[in-house]
Amino acid sequence: MSALEEFEKSSIVAIIRTKTSAEGRSAAHALHSAGITSFEFTTTTPDVFDLIEEFSAIKGITVGVGTAMSPAHVISAKKAGATFVLSPHTDAAVIKKTLDLNLLSVPGVATPTDVARALQAGAKVLKLFPASHFGPAYLKAVRDPFPEAKWLATGGVSVENIKDWFAAGVLGFGVGGPLLGGGIPEIPTRVAAFIAEIKRVKSGKK
């Protein structure tokens, strides 16, 4: 399954941003045990490429690099086994290197100008960031001139607003703090709540 197919199926990417690699490893294992299958390990996490290599070797997991700030990050992520690349911003050089290496590019965008630049550089999936600052109504308005783009909402997504984001047109979410903020013991409950609400909304149930 490609990274895009995984995004469309599960609609949730767990963001691993921790102070130590050991914390990142423990969190990722707990998230996987709770049902998460797509992981973004950020470059701000120590030994990030070792973590990407470790988890990309696990069957059934889709792994990417987050906070990719340079083509060098993309190259290292590819060598480690990543299949997608996320950035908090739009950088044509990062997008180009990502596509050259046959990885899925997901640049961060905030304005219509960002969207246009990202699409011109070849990106197909865009990350609205920080999503909580703009809100679903903003995304719905920005989408209209760019119907070809696919979207992830990242930053401030909660179980309570999943329905609104889907209505605005996202295919999924990048989620960090809402899954990890309570520590390892709370991960199963938090993951279960997100997965249940995503399934409920996608199924059309009220």
From TrEMBL:
Entries under PROSITE patterns matching the protein: ALDOLASE_KDPG_KHG_2
Top-rank taxon, per record: Bacteria
Record's keyword terms, sorted: Carbohydrate metabolism, Lyase
Cross-referenced Pfam families: Aldolase
Coiled coil: none
Gene Ontology molecular function: lyase activity
Keyword Translocase: no
Keyword Plastid assigned: no
Pathway of action: Carbohydrate acid metabolism
Subunit and partners: Homotrimer.
Family membership noted in the UniProt record: Belongs to the KHG/KDPG aldolase family.
Protein name: 2-dehydro-3-deoxyphosphogluconate aldolase / (4S)-4-hydroxy-2-oxoglutarate aldolase
